[in-house]
Amino acid sequence: ADPGVTFGTLLDPSDVPTKTRRKVDKLRWSVSDLSLFLAADIDTEALGLDSGNYWYLKDAGSLERAFDPGPLEDIDEFEALFLSITSLKDPTKRKGNTHTLEVFSFLPWEGFERWASTDPDERPEDYRRIKASLQAAMLRTAERIIPGLSEAVVFQDMGTPVTNVRYCESTRGSIYGSEKTLSQMGPLGFLPKTPIKDLWLCGASTLSHGVAGATMSGLVAATQALDIPMKELLNRQGPSLRTVPCDRPEAWPDAVPQRPRPET
User: Fold this and answer.
1) pLDDT digits (tens, 9 = 90+) for 130-160
2) What does pTM read for this prediction?
3) Which of 54, 97, 102, 162 could lock 83 by a disulfide, CB 3.0 to 4.6 Å apart?
4) Are strands 98-107 and 32-41 parallel, antiparallel or unpaired?
5) What are phi and psi of 77, to 5 degrees?
């Protein structure tokens, strides 16, 4: 749970110090996104695709424009896109020639704020219309990476910033927690230790964002809560780690289930 949810929803307001409430009220949140989930019948080998992550930028200035693409109704394509073929990362999840894909693009919360209080199971017609339009724009942009993808899609669904709120309980649909500016990081941000006894924070709104940042914040919170050095925490007995190539099932350990590749 991010600080907005922790101090604004989970705790009784009377238990939250005034200084902390003011800090949460002034907190700026990171950008939100659109999340497109696909299943498509594609020949990844013929297309030269692999299990890596694909970043698409329309041109040199696309990354800046990606954070504010303008009115939702005017978006025909996206300036920037992230695409991952998840069934190549884990071939055991592949079904025949059908692959699963995830596609993401930045989008500010403000465009969807008008639907924040609507029933998730009964979104109004104007929301569904905008969502369908943006979904089509996402797919068109994804074709810059995989030509002909639209014709190969057998399933698609998309999450919006308000979807993030519903399933992830993220404040304003943020995907990186708090906005990472100098005035909101380090001692000026949220540290693992809080003014409330035995309440510790971790996650993207504390030390840093992303998978690595959130993971490290959990380790730091654990060392402080247990009052032990990081070295002791990481030296605990556990299974050994081994890295194997995801696209070579023949190299996997015997304990990992393998699914034969489909005949071509």
Assistant:
1) 999 999 999 999 999 999 999 999 999 999 9
2) 0.86
3) 54
4) antiparallel
5) -145, 165
